[in-house]
Each structure stands twice: as C-alpha cells, then as structure tokens.
C-alpha cells in the first residue's frame, strides 16, 4: 500500500527531531523553544489548549511557515531550510486543520494529483502526449482506487471533492497524503468537525496505518481519541512544551492537569 | 458578404481564439489572474513588426522605431512568440514569486497601464502614440496582399496556428500536469503540501501563455499592418476575460466559444449599431462605444451571477472503469 521507504530512522534514531524551534510573529512567541523527537512507527500526540502554538509548530515542521530559529532533522537529514513542497516530496507530509480538498477536482483526481512519479506531470511530459504517460496514469489510478476502497469511498470517485461532507473531506485529505508515500504524516486535528461515526472510522484507519509502520504526529483535541491512539503525548502551552509521556502518566502530573486537562 | 469582410472576421476570430486559449490556460486552468495579458500580445506584435520591417530610415524616415530587419515569414512570427515568452520571465519573476494572488492581479493591471504609457511616450522606441505603420504582410514579396487569394491564404495560415495552439493546450490541460495546475488553482497551500512548487508551475504557464499571446499579436499585426498603443489598452484584456468567463473557465472548447461570442460576436454586432445613423447619433458623442464597455461589464456580472461555469463548463474527468455517477 504505502511506498516502500528505506528508513534510515531506527528505534534509536527518531524519524523527526526538532530542536529549539522558535516561531515569532512580530514579537509574539507562538512557538518558543520547542524540542521534540518523533519515534519511528509510533503515533505521537500533540495536545494543549487553544493558542498553545500546536498548529504553528506543525506548520513549521511541514515548512508551510519558516522557523524563526531552530533545527529540524527529518530521517537524519537537515530540512530546516527546505521549502514545504520539497519536504512533502521527501515524505514529510501534512494535512490541514480546515478542509483543504481541491473542490473542482473529482475525489479520484484529488488522490491522483498527489502521486509523485507520473511522467505526465511536467510540461514536457504533458506535451509528449498521452502515450508517454498513460502507463503511469493507469498504475496510479489502480493505487488510488485501492485506497478509495479501503476508506470506503469507491462510489464517490467521480464526484467533485467540493460536494463531499466534512468527514469525507478529511478522509480525502488523509488518502491524498498517503498517495505521496509519506514516511511521516503530520495530522492537524483530523477529527475536528467530523461526524462521530466517521471519527471512529478515522481512528480505525490510523490504527491500521500504525500497524503498517507509518509514523504519525498528530494534533488533536479529543483526549479520549489521543489516549486510544497515541503512544506518546506531548503537551504544549503558551508556545512551550510543558510535559510529555503516556496519557495516563500525564494525567498524574498536577501542572499539566491544571494547564490543560481540566478547564 | 464580401471576401474581405469574411476574411477579416475569420482572421480576427482565429486571433481571438488563440489569445483566449492562452488566457484560459493561465486564468481558467491555473488561476493566474493575468490582467496584463494584452501586453504580451502587444510585445509579440511589435517584435513581429520590427523584425519584418525595413529600418526606419526607409519610406522617407517618417516614423521611428528600433530594429528593422526585413526578415521574411515565418521568422517575424516566431520572433513575436519568443518575445512574448521572454517578457513573461522578468514580469513573472517580479510578480508571481512573492505576491498573493489578488495582489498579483493588481500588479499585472498596473503593469499593463504603465507599459502602455511608457510606449506611448517613448516616441523614438516603437513609434510612440502614433505607433508603427506599413508593416509588411507575411509573404507579400511573393503574393500580392491586395488579392482575394491572399486573404484566403492568411485565413489558412491563421487556421493552422489555431489548430497548433489548440493541440498544445489540449495536451497540457488534459494531462497529469494540467491536473496539478488545476489543483494549484483550487488551493495553492494544499498543492504545496503535496509537493507542488506553485512558483515553478505559475512561471512555466506564464511563459507558455506569453509565447501564445505573442504569436497572436504577430498574426494580428501582419494582418492589419499597423500597431499602436491605442489598440492594446488594458480594457482589451477585460474583453478576453469576459470571453473566458462566458465560454467556461478551464475549458478549451469554452475558450473558443467565448472568443466567438464576445470579442468577435459581441463586438461585431455592436459595430453594426454604429453603422446605423439613427443609433450612432443617439445621445452625446461616444455614447454607443461607452455603452459597449458597459455591456461587456454586464455580460461578465450576468454570467458570474447566473451561469458562473459559462456556456461550456470545464469537463468533469471520469476515469475508465469508474462506477456510475449517482446523479
């Protein structure tokens, strides 16, 4: 299903190591010296109250926002100065907090467009005509249809993505990210605004993906979900990491409970 | 209908179709709001003119322009296309890299106004406000341009260029590359997150569109044999945008229909209004031409309101073996 990466990261070396990341907006320290390691093959949760800087931090990791300072090692490689599209091509793929489907592309096209290694996806490839790229296209259509089947959306493949429900758009986004063959998936509140039934589905899909060895870092507010899914949880407040560990160990730490878990 | 009028109409139709296909690629498919499109047509026309004309000391030196190389067809047309593409590089470099897309549109509109003003006032450069006249029509050294057969020939060459352009843009739009362009149009940030480099995509399409626009200018100047700032004022771009919106954004067939309906059909119909003295003398002088612009504006608003997808909307791509649509 997923593209075969050659993981350099090991149990000892994390998939992603961010050290002392700062992101300032005109004097406001949205992310203020955050360091985390994302271990291989695990789901790491990132929680914290609104305005804690979680989404900003995720955007910095993905390259959507440049870091003011700090260093990001992805699979042992320093990607700090890389633009977002280059990180995505190397398997560091994010999703967005708000639905971000390509509305006037069909559901299937939303998946196909993300696939790397299509000979027709360059100006000269396109100008050489259908015969030049149709084999790649057929292979990718098969791959995309397999994903659609797995996520229960085969019947929708020819519908415009913009006409889908909020939950279906979430699924499209996750499938689209998977088409890239990610090594690390950054999920920004994948359950927000989603019908409870689809929340359960997404949970099962994420558990499956972890079983297959995909590394995930996810920002999520729904703590029951975090508890069930995440191996390790990092808590942020006011731009800083205030604790990390398993959810049950965090529940025993007074300052974390005060900062976030209660009220 | 006499041959000259028919040829005139057909050549204009061809030029407008080529221009609309280019603008559709930029605006309809890729979402680049190129409000300076007409400048790229103009630079193609100027380039083709000075490449085909003798130096400005000829004809008694009554006009001034740079160059003057007396090159034979098709070099001036190729030169016009190249000039359109070359202009797109610095413009794209300044406008497309850092600015957000709505500011890109404004910057390009301003560029169009500035370019026209500069060329109008730099009278030694490309003829200034008076422009350039006596541009030799292509192949005129072999065939007398004042014959019916030459008119047919010109229609034929234009038609070849239309077919060639359509062939190229179809290949781009209906490929995986075209899909990436449409994804960028829909949501640029999300396209970046799946590994697309929007600056590279936009620059490429800006240059490709510039080449096609330059070619359309070269065909036009070879036909009308004059070129001046008054024929490429910024509202000309708006007419082409109206054509794309009426025809159907993102659809090449729509762009062709739009070109036939708006710049050709609409303007021809309203031109006849001017021929009728009863209408032409209505109200203050200049009322009818002014109302033509009002009508173009209403046409854009009307379509955006009632039929935003145009007369021939962008096709939904259904893949072989897809389950039947539910609706």
Largest sheet of chain A: 6 strands, mixed
Between the first and last Cα atoms of chain A, what is the distance in angstroms?
42 Å
Number of helices of chain B: 12
Beta-strand portion of chain B reads under 5%
- Taking all residues together, what is the mean pLDDT of chain B? 92
Q: Stretches of chain A where pLDDT falls below 50 for ≥5 residues? A: 3-7
Radius of gyration of chain A: 19 Å
Strand content of chain A: 15-25%
Strand order of the largest sheet of chain A: 6-7-8-3-9-10
Structural class of chain B: mainly alpha
Shape of chain B: globular
Question: Which structural class best describes the helix and strand composition of chain A?
Answer: alpha/beta
Coarse shape of chain A: globular
State the largest interface. A-B, 50 and 38 residues
**How many angstroms does the end-to-end distance of chain B come to?**
47 Å
Query: Roughly how many Å is the radius of gyration of chain B?
Result: 20 Å
Oligomer category: heterodimer
Q: How much helical structure, as a percent, in the residues of chain A? A: 25-40%
Order of helices and strands of chain B: HHHHHHHHHHHH
């Amino acid at each position: 299903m997923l593209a075969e990466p050659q993981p350099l990261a090991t149990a000892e070396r994390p998939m992603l190591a961010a050290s002392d990341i700062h992101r300032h907006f005109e004097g406001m320290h949205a992310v203020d010296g955050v360091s985390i390691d994302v271990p291989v093959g695990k789901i790491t949760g990132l929680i914290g109250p609104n305005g804690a800087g979680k989404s900003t931090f995720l955007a910095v990791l993905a390259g959507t926002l440049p870091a003011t300072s700090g260093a990001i090692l992805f699979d042992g490689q320093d990607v700090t100065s890389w633009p977002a599209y280059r990180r995505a091509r190397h398997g560091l793929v994010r999703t967005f907090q708000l639905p971000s489907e390509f509305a006037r592309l069909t559901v299937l096209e939303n998946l196909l467009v993300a696939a790397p290694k299509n000979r027709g996806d360059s100006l000269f490839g396109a100008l050489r005509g259908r015969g030049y790229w149709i084999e790649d296209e057929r292979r990718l259509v098969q791959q995309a249809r397999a994903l659609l089947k797995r996520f229960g959306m085969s019947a929708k493949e020819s519908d415009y993505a913009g006409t889908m429900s909020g939950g279906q758009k979430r699924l499209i986004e996750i499938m689209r990210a998977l088409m890239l063959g990610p090594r690390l998936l950054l999920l920004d509140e994948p359950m927000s605004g989603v019908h409870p039934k689809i929340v359960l589905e997404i949970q099962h899909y994420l558990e499956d993906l972890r079983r297959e060895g995909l590394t995930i870092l996810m920002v999520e507010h729904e703590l029951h979900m975090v508890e069930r899914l995440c191996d390790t949880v990092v808590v942020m407040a006011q731009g800083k990491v205030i604790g990390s560990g398993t959810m049950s160990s965090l529940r025993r730490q007074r300052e974390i409970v005060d900062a976030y878990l209660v009220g | 209908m006499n041959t000259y009028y028919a040829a005139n109409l057909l050549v204009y139709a061809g030029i407008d179709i080529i221009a609309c296909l280019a603008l559709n690629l930029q605006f309809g498919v890729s979402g680049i709001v190129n409000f300076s499109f007409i400048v790229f047509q103009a630079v193609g026309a100027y380039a083709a003119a000075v490449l085909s004309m003798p130096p400005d000391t000829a004809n008694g030196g009554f006009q001034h322009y740079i160059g003057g190389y007396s090159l034979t067809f098709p070099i001036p047309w190729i030169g016009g296309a190249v000039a359109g593409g070359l202009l797109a590089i610095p413009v794209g470099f300044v406008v497309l890299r850092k600015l957000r897309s709505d500011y890109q549109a404004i910057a390009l509109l301003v560029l169009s106004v500035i370019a026209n003003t500069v060329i109008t006032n730099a009278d030694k450069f490309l003829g200034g406000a008076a422009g350039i006249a006596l541009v030799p029509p292509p192949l005129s050294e072999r065939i007398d341009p004042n014959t019916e057969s030459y008119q047919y020939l010109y229609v034929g060459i234009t038609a070849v260029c239309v077919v060639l352009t359509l062939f190229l843009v179809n290949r781009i739009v209906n490929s995986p590359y075209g899909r990436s362009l449409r994804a960028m149009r829909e949501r640029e940030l999300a396209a970046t997150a799946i590994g697309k480099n929007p600056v590279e995509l936009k620059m490429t399409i800006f240059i490709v569109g510039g080449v096609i626009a330059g070619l359309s200018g070269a065909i036009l100047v070879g036909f009308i044999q004059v070129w001046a700032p008054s024929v490429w004022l910024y509202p000309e771009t708006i007419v082409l945008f109206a054509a794309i919106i009426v025809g159907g954004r993102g659809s090449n067939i729509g762009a062709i229909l739009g070109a036939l309906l708006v710049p050709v059909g609409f303007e021809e119909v309203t031109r006849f209004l001017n021929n009728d003295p009863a209408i032409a003398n209505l109200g203050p002088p200049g009322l009818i031409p002014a109302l033509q612009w009002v009508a173009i504006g209403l046409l854009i608003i009307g379509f955006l309101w009632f039929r935003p997808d145009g007369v021939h909307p962008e096709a939904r791509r259904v893949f072989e073996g897809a389950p039947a649509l539910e609706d």
